[in-house]
Amino acid sequence: MGDIVETAVEAGSFKTLVSAAQTAGLVETLKGQGPFTVFAPDDEAFHMLPPGMLAELLNDTPKLKAILMYHVVPGKFTIDEIAQMRTIKTAQGQEVMIDAHKWHLHMNPKINDSNITSKDIVTDNGMIHVLNRVLMPNMELTCPVCSMGFMNMEELNNHTKMSHLAAMAPAEPMAPEPMAPAEPMAPEPMAPAEPMPPAEPMEPAEVMPVVEKAPEPMATAEVMPEPVSPTGKTATGVFEIMLDADRKFRFHLKATNGLIIAASQSYGSREAAVKGIASIMKNAPVAKVADFTPVRGAMPEISHTGIVQDPVFEIICDVGGKFRFHLKAGNGLIIAASQSYGSREAAETGIASIKNNAPMARVVDHTMAAA
To answer: Where are the domains of the chain?
Structure first.
């Protein structure tokens, strides 16, 4: 398995995207640690741009960079997680809209006006979802210097004043300077007096702060030390806490291979989400399994033999005929749900993975930096 760039090159259908990333100087970024989720337009998507537009973009690096960064999202998100969101903020700074109202019919979510044609392509440093259209940010709210985008004009103006005004201001004091040496024949006492005014251009130096890396606050922050079991084994999985589009707290459990094996409901507070994680750690290892899926047209089979108050993994079939499961605590509340699986056996393997990974998983909180 390679990184995002290596995977795109190997696929062979992203030649334009890779070439554009090289032109914009983003290859090293996309080969970095990440993780990143990339909505990747294939070559056909770029060919659908208006005639001449691609050549124009390749000659306008700031605009090209803004468009490419608008396709990148900090974090690693599967199609199941994306379908739960309404918007998601890109590395460029502006948001893309997510239309997943047909996700229950197993139709991929739309990103702005683009359709996802291939999903959940796992790489070493993130995830790729293929698009059939190139996404376009609002260039009127995009900085022409650093390519960062903003949600309104006030944010853009504040950014320009703080980040780029100082770089532009020193150009003006250069005009008077040639005038001083232009009159060397004047009376000598006047010559020393002239060089004094150029000291004034030092004032713009007060506007020093330059902040151009909006995506960096997405860096992870571990909120719990990595637990160690009595046998000396370290944690096997990772619980990641994040904010959804409604500013609610959710988490998912990732196995050691980076795949998400369980996702939570939404919680009103970080503390409630942490309690939900603790409940999974406690209940998953001892939960029985109840199979509510039809078997060759027979009545639903229930393999759960414990009492009603026992925690239980319930396997079900969704409307698309795929297998899913959820974990119920002793009070009957669902505390985790799975992605869809193509077979009952795959779902059972997912349950076994949760039982193995959850008890000693560490917790990483992505909401601390984003708050």
So the answer is: 4-141, 220-370
Q: What are phi and psi of 228, to 5 degrees?
A: -125, 130
Q: How far is CA 244 from the centre of its chain?
A: 11
Task: Kindly report the CATH number that applies to the domain delimited by 220-370.
Answer: 2.30.29.80
- Dihedral (Cα; 310, 315, 318, 324), 10-degree rounding: 100
How far apart (Å, rounded) are the C-alpha atoms in residues 105 and 99? 13
b/e map 259-268, b = 16+ CB within 10 Å: ebbbbbbebe
User: 4-141: what fold?
Assistant: FAS1 domain (2.30.180)
Q: Which of these, 267, 263, 355, lies nearest to 311 by C-alpha position?
A: 355
For every one of its 371 residues, what pLDDT tens digit does the chain have, with 9 covering 90 and above?
A: 789 999 999 999 999 999 999 999 999 999 988 889 999 999 999 999 999 999 999 999 999 999 999 999 988 888 888 888 888 889 998 999 999 887 766 688 899 999 999 998 999 999 999 999 999 999 999 888 888 888 888 888 887 777 665 444 444 444 444 444 445 444 445 444 444 444 444 443 333 333 333 333 322 223 333 333 333 444 478 998 988 767 788 888 888 877 888 888 888 888 888 988 998 998 899 999 988 776 533 333 333 333 346 788 988 876 567 788 888 887 778 888 888 788 888 889 989 989 988 888 889 888 875 55
pTM of the predicted model as reported, rounded to 2 decimal places = 0.50
Per CATH, 4-141 and 220-370 having the same topology is answered no
Provide Rg for the chain, Cα atoms: 27
Instruction: Give 238's contacts (C-beta < 8 A, 6+ positions apart).
Output: 253, 254, 361, 362, 363, 364
Identify the sign of the CA torsion 292, 294, 299, 304: negative
Residue closest to 366 by CA, chosen among 76, 55, 64: 76
Find the distance separating the first CA and the last CA of the chain, reported in whole Å: 33
